[in-house]
Amino acid sequence: MPKHGKNFTAAMAKIESHEYQIGDAISAIKGASFVKFDESVEVALNLGVDPRHADQMVRASVVLPHGTGKTSRIVVIAQGEKVKEAEDAGADHVGGQDLVEKIAGGWLEFEAVISTPDMMREVGKLGRVLGPRGLMPNPKTGTVTFDVAKAVDDIKAGKLDFRVDKNGVVHAPVGKVSFDEAQLNDNVMALFGAIMRSKPAASKGKYIKSAFLTSTMGPSVRIDPDAVEAAQV
What we know:
Blueprint: H1 6-13, H2 22-32, E1 40-47, E2 59-63, E3 74-77, H3 81-89, E4 93-95, H4 97-104, E5 112-115, H5 120-123, H6 127-130, H7 148-156, E6 159-163, E7 169-176, H8 181-197, E8 208-215, E9 220-223, H9 225-229
Parallel strand pairs: 3-4, 3-5
Antiparallel strand pairs: 1-7, 1-8, 2-6, 8-9
Helix pairs in contact: 2-8, 3-7
């Protein structure tokens, strides 16, 4: 068993072993924070799906009402008039083949990638680079589109892409410890609602097997799975 410092141990002592309702879990996480920096607050959901089967993949996006507290650097890969549209919308880096080659060469100073459909033949070559990082543009998440201005605006407004990993788990940030409880609750409910709406028809049995809320350095809190399934907003 790994040894924890006295501050983490003291924080753990504030967390009860039972499953929390969502609002109580948020209060517990904020109350247990003990570090001097503004920690991220994250959720982890173990879903009753087998992502090895395409019809049980869970992948979508949601705009968190209060954002994640983190500013995303946005890349748009486009050509023609869409280049200026992306620049006017506030994208951090815009380009075509030149930008594809720059990324292929190892440049990865960004957190979001948008592509117009006509550039996906070239962007597809970046699958091995962008795929493992969860950055590959995808029509399901609105990042393959000719409406690049809207895509940029959505990301700046707090759009969050999420997907289930190979173990059936979704990890996602929902804000910062400095957010007030109402803001965190709004964000958590928005994410849980999106995950519930993304339930595959092929998923049988219990969809939300377990749910946890945690901060970057703090202990995790178990959330009642039924409370997640009730968040169908």
